[in-house]
Amino acid sequence: MRRKDVGVYIHVPFCERVCPYCDFAVVARRVIDPAEEARLVTALQTELRARAPAYAGRSLATIYFGGGTPSLLRPASIAGLIEAVRGQWNPDGEPLEITLELNPSTVERERLPAFRDAGVDRLSIGVQSFDDESLHRLGRAHRVDEAHRTLEAARSAGFTNLSLDLIFGVPSQDLAGVRKDVREALAYRPEHVSAYGLTVEEGTPYATAVARGQLQPADDETGAAMMEAVSADLGAGGLERYEISSYARPGYQARHNRRYWRREPVLGIGVGAHSSESPGSGTPFGARRANERQLAAWLARIEGGGGAGPPQFEALSEPEARSEAGFLGLRTQPGLNRRRFEAEFGLLPEVCWPALQELREAGLLEEADGAWRLTQRGWLLSDTVFERLV
Amino acid sequence: MDASKIRNFCIIAHIDHGKSTLADRLLDATGTLGAREKRDQFLDKMELEQERGITIKAQTARMTYRAKDGEDYILNLIDTPGHVDFSYEVSRALQACEGAVLVVDASQGIEAQTLANAYMAIEADLEILPIVNKIDLPAADPEGAAQQVEDVIGLDAADVLPVSAKEGTGVDELLERIVANVPPPRGDAEAPLRALIFDAWFDSYVGVAALVRVVDGEVKKGDRVKLRAQGSEHDVQDLHVIDPHPRRVKRLGAGEVGVVICGIKSLDELKIGDTIVPAAPPLPDALPGFREVKPMVFSGLYPVEAEDYHSLKAALEKLRLNDSSFQYEPETSAALGFGFRCGFLGFLHCEIIQERLEREYDLDLITTAPTVRYRVEKKDGETIEIETPAALPDVMEIATINEPTILATIHVPQEYVGAVIALCQERRGNQRDMAVHGGRVQIRYELPLAEVVADFHDRIKSVTRGFGSYDYDLIGYTPAALVKLDILVNGDPVDALSLIVHRDKAHTRGADLARKLKEFIPRQMFEVAIQAAIGAKVVARTTVKALRKNVTAKCYGGDISRKRKLLEKQKAGKRRMKRVGSVEIPQEAFLAALKLGDDS
What we know:
The complex is a heterodimer. Chain A has helices at 34-51, 75-88, 106-110, 112-118, 132-138, 144-156, 175-186, 205-211, 220-236, 255-261, 295-303, 318-331, 338-345, 349-352, 355-361, 376-380, 382-386; strands at 5-12, 14-15, 27-28, 59-67, 97-102, 122-128, 162-168, 192-197, 240-243, 246-248, 266-269, 274-277, 287-290, 312-315, 336-337, 365-368, 371-374. Chain A is of the alpha/beta class. Chain A folds into two domains: 5-260, Transcription Regulator spoIIAA (2-Layer Sandwich); 318-387, Arc Repressor Mutant, subunit A. In chain A, the strands form four sheets. In chain A, strands 9-10-8-7-6-5-4-1-11 form a nine-stranded mixed sheet, with helices on both faces. A three-stranded antiparallel sheet of chain A has the order 12-13-14, with no helix packed on it. In chain A, helix 2 (75-88) runs parallel beside helix 4 and helix 7 runs parallel beside helix 9. The longest helix of chain B is centred in the last third of the chain and has 19 residues, at 557-575. In chain B, strands 11-10-16-7-8-15-12-13 form an eight-stranded antiparallel sheet. Chain B starts with 5 loop residues before the first strand and ends with a helix. By secondary structure, chain B is α+β, with helices and mostly antiparallel strands. Classes of the chains: A alpha/beta, B alpha+beta. The interface between A and B is medium-sized, with 44 and 25 residues.
């Protein structure tokens, strides 16, 4: 916890449709009824007021609207929430990063100028692919031409910090297809790209389809080759890889996302949102909280006046905090800083985990400039590395 | 007790020919068993025995029978273990008898064990009373079976008594024949005591209970006695007869069968086949036929969970209390951790011990491939016996390896002869001879014991659709071209998978093992080479390619706790893996590879 600040995550559970690979807290709504929207915004503000005092005395660093599809909310709702958050910490407005996740669609595209007026300064656009077949396979609602229109509109609206989400390893997609997606993304000169290998999460329709043999995700070799190509092509396009799936131009790393990897406090409000707290009395190694995953249950608690304490609370033990420091630090390009780790836990990482040396010999880790980092091969085998850190 | 009124007899039969049912029917007919206790196969006590339908430890029962001549006779039924692994115990039990009821299934006819047991009984000079059982079955052919008895064993077919133990038919007649035809015990009531120990068990209250047949003289409570072969002296503390529950008696005279308790604490201190004699000189001669029983089959037993080691040790100690033919000593495997090297009389014995450990003691075990005791002649003239592949000296030091050889007697209906011969050839057998009796053929093969320990019995059953039967005798040691086959992962030997095999089989076996391991070893961060090697020579090789990608794409907010827990879970899974060198091998790989040993 280097700075005494806080990031706020606001979860909006609505999506036009639920994608078959998604395991977030999501509710399908083609059109949101204004009354339902008002009720949600009110509940979010209630929870914010109840929980912000726990983070008092900090400055506000970031606001992140995630989902779901938060851009399904009307710009006025977004504006109201931003105002409410600012009001809790620094009404005078320090430099902030305010990110809004947005999917390519006509409605959302038309709202872009209004979102910008509301204070949003960064868009994370769920492009996923520039190939209609892949979009179809992913179960996405939009098609490629809408993605193009949305990206153009975002630039026209004056957004200077755009992030594109891409997914690779989609069934039927080949290496050339992935590289084409990267090329098309680079054409918009994005400040940031998040490129995720498709993960089949337990309990999703995708997992069922894979288990039934109806769907074949990219094999190990192909998946690895895709990740390497994505990394190389984005690098050549001026976006440096600073985390396993994150690429940015200098100065445009996602400050909100970085908070997670640096284990900095985040207040998460809304259904299914997670929060992390700095060490405090009774929680010497910090704590994590999780809200209800069901919309009705979350609403019931907030509206019933139980806003202060989300149901799931977990005080981290020292070994848990150490492993998180290890595997979150190693996810990033700056890596796991040895001295900072020592300052926090009283021993150097390599003393804590003798396996680090073995992993270095195996070519998965390197140690330089006072930090441990994943090698090129280590990026691909990061979970093999992380398994040794618990 | 008037010895002329005693009849000591046993029932001998091939497995499943109805020996235990007949025994129960005799107890029944003589009123020995109260109605409350009537339960199928009273004499097979252990659950496992009941399940497998075989008797492992011999039991005995004393019956009082009023014969048609109006006299009361004491009939001692001496039960015999029903499996090839226990042939020495069978031979001692036969020594305690004067007669044997030979049971032949009326539909199955003579089988390998019928014959083996009949020969043993003839050798022991017993009066044989042949019966054909299960005459109630629709497929029964009592005349045919009786004719086989005449053709194969040489007993008059006219003397064969038809019986249905199930329905009680012929049981009374059998009792009369026992009285009439089984000779009363020979032996000198006036001579110094000689009692044959033919079974023993451990009782937690009284210690070792020895089941004996008094041959000469008598034994009384308080007598000072000596175990002839063992050399130890004891005071007789208690004497029982079993009719069919233990009942205390003051003395056991010549010809009687009963239990002697003399303060022996461990079964190790008493040997089946030993003679109990008076402690005071002059010592009478020992009864003939005593020998030390040595384990023939060896296998490593390891707990699946390392923390079960002490439970396994305690369970082995307990089992051994009641089975001194089973031996164990601690052994350490680099791959499997701490366990025990165990010696068994045969493979069935091994299986039974294993099952009891898993069932009665709730232990999960890994069992290494069974091996036999090899006799290795070294170039320096020394001869050593080894029971584990690890103990085999360096190839350069070995002059000859000799392996134990058996003579297997196999009985099959004619149509399966080809299949049996093929099986025996595949197991490196040499045919000794073949004889045809009606539709059935007796084939005798010399076979390496190592080739039959694992699954030969099952294979015989399967290639003959259950109609074949098999028995064996150890006949000695034969030189053979044997080699030690090692399995290496990235150059490190997996000790638990080493085998001694015939040179001709090493390649196939090695390739099978390597393939099996490959199936179960997960991809690791480096390539894993799996090799099968004889000394420095690699005979089979396969590789598990290095893991290319193992990555979680997203890790924000709620993903973090989830990821940490997942990593913890994966780590716990890894703990169950065994590390050989730097390679992590899951337990299942060993299980699969060792299982392969069973069915190849």
